[in-house]
Every structure is written in structure tokens, then in C-alpha cells.
């Protein structure tokens, strides 16, 4: 049996490069180098047939610790809640109002990038507070 060593998370979207660059800002990720044989992503895109241009884009953790994110263009729009979502861990180790303040501060930064705030879920007897948000194409994620 093969051992899985890496995971890539793939998002369906309308504008792959735009969404990828948003997530670069959220996570401190970078755009990986263009494919071998191409000096830039623009050059690579121009080499593709018209129907493939702009069909995908990626971002990666510069440390190599986090998963690569891949964004692929699909013709249909988002119609229901995500079955899988990312938790952006900004409140790790914090509790109570200190945690909520950290979530709110990060929320404000991400709203300025085009994200939308959905709902603050306050701590209960089972879970700490988290903040539900949407990226620039409406994909849900949580500040945790």
C-alpha cells in the first residue's frame, strides 16, 4: 500500500487566478513557479489553447508545511453550502473574549480583501468560538 505524503485541496470556481491570489493573502501562501519551460505564468497561459487559458491556478505554502491549493474553472456557479471547508487557525490557544478579539481582527483584515463575514459562533460547552466567512466567490471557511 502506498503512503500518502502530500494533500492538495481543490476548489471549483469561476476565476481561478483571482481566487488563488485571495487565498495567498489570507494564508501567506505564494504563487508557485510557472511550469517547466516557461519564464512566467503569462507566457504559459499564452501557450495554451484558448479554451484552456485561465482554467486553473494554484498557491502553495512557502514553507512546504501546508497543503497546495488548486483552483479550477467550472461552468456552474456555487449553489449550496460547501461539504468541505478550510479552518484558518487564528485563535489557537486563545479562549473567551481574547479569542473572539483575534477572530474579529482577522475578519476585518479579510473583509478588506473581499471576504464576507457570515456569523460569529460563540463558545459553548463543546466548542470554542469560531467565525464563519465566505471567500470572494462565496466558498465558506471558518476563522478558528
Residue-averaged pLDDT:
93
Fraction of helical residues = 25-40%
- Span of the ends, CA to CA: 34 Å
Fraction in beta strands: 15-25%
How is this structure best described in words?
The chain is α/β, with parallel strands linked by helices and 144 residues long. The chain folds into two domains: 66 residues, no CATH class; 58 residues, Signal recognition particle alu RNA binding heterodimer, srp9/1 (2-Layer Sandwich). Strands 4-7-6-5 form a four-stranded mixed sheet, with helices on one face. A three-stranded mixed sheet has the order 1-3-2, covered by helices on one side. Strand 5 and strand 6 form a beta hairpin. 20% of the residues are buried. The mean pLDDT is 93.
Give structural attributes.
144 residues; elongated; 24% strand; 4-stranded mixed sheet; Signal recognition particle alu RNA binding heterodimer, srp9/1; 3-stranded mixed sheet; 2 domains; 7 strands; alpha/beta
Amino acid at each position: 500500500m502506498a503512503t500518502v505524503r502530500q494533500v492538495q485541496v481543490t476548489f471549483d470556481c469561476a476565476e481561478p487566478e483571482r481566487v488563488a491570489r485571495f487565498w495567498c493573502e489570507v494564508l501567506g501562501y505564494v504563487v508557485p513557479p510557472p511550469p517547466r519551460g516557461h519564464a512566467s505564468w503569462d507566457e504559459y497561459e499564452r501557450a495554451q489553447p484558448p479554451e484552456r487559458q485561465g482554467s486553473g491556478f494554484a498557491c502553495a505554502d512557502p514553507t512546504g508545511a501546508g497543503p497546495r491549493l488548486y483552483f479550477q474553472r467550472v461552468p456552474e456557479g456555487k449553489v449550496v453550502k460547501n461539504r468541505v471547508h478550510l479552518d484558518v487557525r487564528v485563535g489557537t490557544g486563545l479562549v473567551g473574549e481574547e479569542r473572539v478579539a483575534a477572530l474579529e481582527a482577522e475578519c476585518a483584515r479579510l473583509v478588506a480583501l473581499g471576504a464576507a463575514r457570515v456569523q460569529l459562533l460563540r463558545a459553548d460547552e463543546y466548542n470554542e468560538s469560531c467565525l464563519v466567512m465566505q471567500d470572494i466567490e462565496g466558498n465558506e471557511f471558518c476563522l478558528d
